Amino acid sequence: MIVQKVIALLIMVIPAAIAMYGIKLIRDAFFYSTAPDVDFLWGKLVLGVLAFAVPVWFIAGFILHHDRKKNRVQPRFMIREPEDDE
Fold first, then answer.
1. Residue 3 phi/psi, 5° resolution?
2. Were both Cys, which of 26, 34, 51, 60 would link to 22 (CB 3.0–4.6 Å)?
3. Average confidence score pLDDT of the chain
4. Could you tell me how far CA 12 lies from the centroid of its own chain?
5. What pTM did the predictor assign?
6. Handedness of CA 32, 36, 38, 43 (dihedral sign)
């Protein structure tokens, strides 16, 4: 039981750390662009947005999956069963 909770914690912490690094990359791209001798760093900005958005999407999906299993979501977020037309 403890091992499962540690694994679940790691599943949440590692993407959160990657998302924090993405925020740092976005911030660096904007702050370095204010320097007169440095152009805007598009590569760093795009990498930062991806490094932020993908882990947040993963964490949201993980939480939604977990809450669906425990039946704690609103009916509109439940997986619909296919209806039989006979």
1. -65, -40
2. 51
3. 91
4. 9
5. 0.80
6. positive
- Nearest-angstrom CA–CA distance, 15 and 25: 15
Q: Which has the minimum average pLDDT: 1-10, 16-25, 50-59?
A: 1-10
d(CA 60, CA 78): 15
Q: Are 25 and 45 in contact (CB under 8 A)?
A: yes
Hey, is 9 helix, strand or coil? helix
Per the CB < 8 A criterion, the answer to whether 36 and 12 are in contact is no
- Among all chains, which residue has been given the structure tokens 């791209």? 29
What is the full DSSP assignment across 21-80?
HHHHHHHHHHHHTTSTT----HHHHHHHHHHHHHHHHHHHHHHHHHHHHTT-S-GGGSPP
Query: What is the C-alpha separation between 85 and 72, in angstroms, rounded?
Result: 29
Return the CA Rg of the chain: 20
